[in-house]
Amino acid sequence: MSAATTGPGAQEVDVDAVAAAVAALPEVASLASGGLVPVATYLPGRRVLGVRVEDTAVTVAVVGALWTPVATLASSVRRAITPLAGGRRIDVHVEDVAAPGERPGD
Protein backbone atom coordinates (compact mmCIF):
# COMPACT_ATOMS: atom_id res chain seq x y z
CA MET A 1 0.00 0.00 0.00
CA SER A 2 1.26 3.47 -0.79
CA ALA A 3 -0.07 5.61 1.98
CA ALA A 4 0.11 9.29 2.67
CA THR A 5 -0.71 10.56 6.14
CA THR A 6 -0.58 14.18 7.16
CA GLY A 7 -1.37 15.79 10.47
CA PRO A 8 -1.99 14.22 13.84
CA GLY A 9 -4.75 11.64 13.81
CA ALA A 10 -5.16 11.72 10.04
CA GLN A 11 -6.30 8.48 8.46
CA GLU A 12 -4.01 7.03 5.84
CA VAL A 13 -4.94 7.44 2.20
CA ASP A 14 -3.77 4.91 -0.39
CA VAL A 15 -2.77 7.35 -3.13
CA ASP A 16 -2.27 4.57 -5.70
CA ALA A 17 -5.84 3.39 -5.10
CA VAL A 18 -7.13 6.96 -5.43
CA ALA A 19 -5.18 7.46 -8.67
CA ALA A 20 -6.41 4.14 -10.09
CA ALA A 21 -10.05 4.87 -9.17
CA VAL A 22 -9.92 8.28 -10.84
CA ALA A 23 -8.08 7.06 -13.95
CA ALA A 24 -10.68 4.31 -14.43
CA LEU A 25 -13.55 6.78 -14.77
CA PRO A 26 -14.86 7.26 -18.33
CA GLU A 27 -15.20 11.00 -17.62
CA VAL A 28 -11.43 11.26 -17.01
CA ALA A 29 -8.94 11.26 -19.89
CA SER A 30 -5.97 11.20 -17.50
CA LEU A 31 -4.59 12.46 -14.24
CA ALA A 32 -2.80 15.81 -14.50
CA SER A 33 0.14 17.52 -12.82
CA GLY A 34 -1.89 20.49 -11.64
CA GLY A 35 -0.08 23.34 -13.36
CA LEU A 36 2.00 25.92 -11.47
CA VAL A 37 1.29 24.37 -8.09
CA PRO A 38 1.93 20.65 -8.55
CA VAL A 39 -0.72 18.20 -7.49
CA ALA A 40 1.34 15.21 -6.47
CA THR A 41 2.13 12.92 -3.59
CA TYR A 42 5.82 12.34 -2.98
CA LEU A 43 6.68 8.85 -1.76
CA PRO A 44 10.07 7.24 -1.25
CA GLY A 45 11.69 7.00 -4.67
CA ARG A 46 8.66 8.17 -6.66
CA ARG A 47 5.73 10.52 -6.93
CA VAL A 48 2.08 10.04 -7.82
CA LEU A 49 0.99 12.87 -10.11
CA GLY A 50 -2.58 14.08 -9.89
CA VAL A 51 -3.22 13.27 -6.21
CA ARG A 52 -2.25 15.40 -3.21
CA VAL A 53 -3.22 14.50 0.36
CA GLU A 54 -3.34 17.19 3.04
CA ASP A 55 -4.68 17.30 6.60
CA THR A 56 -8.24 18.13 5.60
CA ALA A 57 -8.41 17.52 1.85
CA VAL A 58 -7.51 15.25 -1.02
CA THR A 59 -6.90 17.22 -4.21
CA VAL A 60 -7.18 15.45 -7.54
CA ALA A 61 -6.08 17.07 -10.83
CA VAL A 62 -7.50 15.62 -14.03
CA VAL A 63 -7.86 16.07 -17.76
CA GLY A 64 -11.54 15.59 -18.47
CA ALA A 65 -13.04 13.72 -21.38
CA LEU A 66 -14.31 16.13 -24.03
CA TRP A 67 -18.04 16.91 -23.82
CA THR A 68 -18.28 15.86 -20.17
CA PRO A 69 -19.77 18.68 -18.07
CA VAL A 70 -17.35 19.75 -15.33
CA ALA A 71 -20.01 19.27 -12.64
CA THR A 72 -20.57 15.68 -13.80
CA LEU A 73 -16.82 15.04 -13.87
CA ALA A 74 -16.29 16.43 -10.37
CA SER A 75 -19.25 14.49 -9.00
CA SER A 76 -17.97 11.24 -10.51
CA VAL A 77 -14.48 11.77 -9.07
CA ARG A 78 -15.86 12.56 -5.62
CA ARG A 79 -18.17 9.53 -5.67
CA ALA A 80 -15.32 7.23 -6.75
CA ILE A 81 -12.83 8.29 -4.08
CA THR A 82 -14.99 9.21 -1.09
CA PRO A 83 -14.45 5.75 0.46
CA LEU A 84 -10.68 6.18 -0.03
CA ALA A 85 -10.27 9.77 1.22
CA GLY A 86 -10.20 9.09 4.95
CA GLY A 87 -13.00 11.56 5.67
CA ARG A 88 -11.23 14.46 3.98
CA ARG A 89 -12.84 17.03 1.68
CA ILE A 90 -12.27 16.20 -2.00
CA ASP A 91 -11.17 19.01 -4.30
CA VAL A 92 -11.21 18.39 -8.05
CA HIS A 93 -9.03 20.50 -10.35
CA VAL A 94 -9.85 20.18 -14.06
CA GLU A 95 -6.66 21.17 -15.87
CA ASP A 96 -7.72 20.48 -19.46
CA VAL A 97 -10.05 18.45 -21.67
CA ALA A 98 -9.16 15.87 -24.32
CA ALA A 99 -11.04 14.03 -27.04
CA PRO A 100 -11.21 10.22 -26.82
CA GLY A 101 -7.87 8.75 -27.86
CA GLU A 102 -6.15 12.15 -27.65
CA ARG A 103 -3.28 12.56 -25.23
CA PRO A 104 -3.28 15.82 -23.27
CA GLY A 105 -0.96 18.36 -24.83
CA ASP A 106 -1.24 16.94 -28.38
SS elements, strand count: 8
Order of helices and strands: EEHEEEEEHE
Overall mean pLDDT stands at 88
The percentage of residues in β strands lies in: 35-45%
3D structure, described in words:
With 106 residues, this protein is an alpha+beta fold. The protein is built from 2 helices and 8 strands. It has helices at residues 15-23, 70-81; strands at 3-4, 13-14, 28-31, 40-43, 46-49, 51-53, 57-65, 89-98. The strands form 3 sheets. Strands 3, 6, 7 and 8 form a 4-stranded mixed β-sheet that branches. Strands 1-2 form a two-stranded antiparallel sheet. A hairpin with a 2-residue loop joins β4 and β5. The longest helix has 12 residues, at 70-81. The protein is globular and about 35 Å long. 29% of the residues are buried.
What is the fold's blueprint, element by element?
Elements: E1 3-4, E2 13-14, H1 15-23, E3 28-31, E4 40-43, E5 46-49, E6 51-53, E7 57-65, H2 70-81, E8 89-98
Parallel strand pairs: 7-8
Antiparallel strand pairs: 1-2, 3-7, 4-5, 6-7
